[in-house]
Amino acid sequence: MNKREEEKKRRQEERLKKELARLEAMSVYEREYAACGAICGIDEAGRGPLAGPVVAGAVILPKDEQILYVNDSKKLSEKKRELLYDEIMERALAVGVGIVGPERIDEINILQATYEAMRLAVGQLEMRPDILLNDAVTIPGIDIQQVPIVKGDAKSVSIAAASIIAKVTRDRLMREYDQVFPEYDFASNKGYGTKSHIEALKALGPTPIHRRTFIQHFVQ
């Protein structure tokens, strides 16, 4: 092995060491509640957009292995999220997804719709968790111990994994909606209130996937 190869290997080993240390730091809550049994991370995507559903992810990860580079979905590139989504789906003990659409969001408000999506996600799991680690919230109507963690998607690997599942699932849905409503550029803005999205909304009016309670300032 020449010096260049040795240096490359050294840098790779340093990056791996740093990543393992980061994951170790993000596993504090998993270690704290390890005795509880099956730990499930819960997170959502899509509370803020003007259009599309709110999506929740629920993930139970194996306790004896780590998935490298799992992190808060907002800190990852779209390509990295897609790769990690596939790895999580393959290696997780259980994954659940809950989707609540815009009509329901308008009917019960976004917070209650988020809770509903989270309950649906937990209900989709193939095994019952013993404890839920939630990103910031306590979910009503669930008889499982819950631990709300502020900014949990950056502090817990389980919640981070759930954030990736929720985000990728929702982004894929919005790309599908873009094929139906190309004027609104949903593939790019994912339903958020970008300038071009708002301009299209004002010019063309709302689509069936717009949240009527969210667009009152833009459409009469």
Description:
This protein has 220 residues and is an alpha/beta fold. It has a single domain, classed as Nucleotidyltransferase, domain 5 (2-Layer Sandwich), CATH 3.30.420.10. 46% of the residues lie in helices and 14% in strands. The chain has eight helices and five strands, in the order H-H-E-E-H-E-H-H-E-E-H-H-H. The protein has helices at residues 3-25, 28-32, 78-91, 102-108, 110-124, 157-180, 186-189, 195-204, and strands at residues 39-45, 54-60, 94-100, 131-135, 145-149. It has a five-stranded mixed β-sheet. The longest helix is centred in the C-terminal third of the chain and has 24 residues, at 157-180.
* Radius of gyration (Å): 19 Å
Instruction: Write the CATH architecture name.
Output: 2-Layer Sandwich
With helices defined by DSSP (H or I, 4 residues minimum), what is the helix count?
Answer: 8
Helix- and strand-based class?
A: alpha/beta
Arrangement of strands in the largest sheet: 3-2-1-4-5
Structurally, the number of domains stands at 1
Q: Quick check: average pLDDT?
A: 95
CATH C-level class is: Alpha Beta
Instruction: Provide the low-confidence segments as ranges.
Output: none
CATH fold group: Nucleotidyltransferase, domain 5
Listing every helix as H and every strand as E from the N terminus to the C terminus, the arrangement reads HHEEHEHHEEHHH
Strand content: 5-15%
- Describe the main β-sheet briefly: 5 strands, mixed
How many runs of DSSP E, i.e. beta strands?
A: 5
Give the terminus-to-terminus CA distance.
70 Å
User: What name goes with the CATH superfamily?
Assistant: Ribonuclease H-like superfamily/Ribonuclease H
Shape field: globular
Q: What percentage of residues falls in helices of 4 or more residues? A: 40-55%
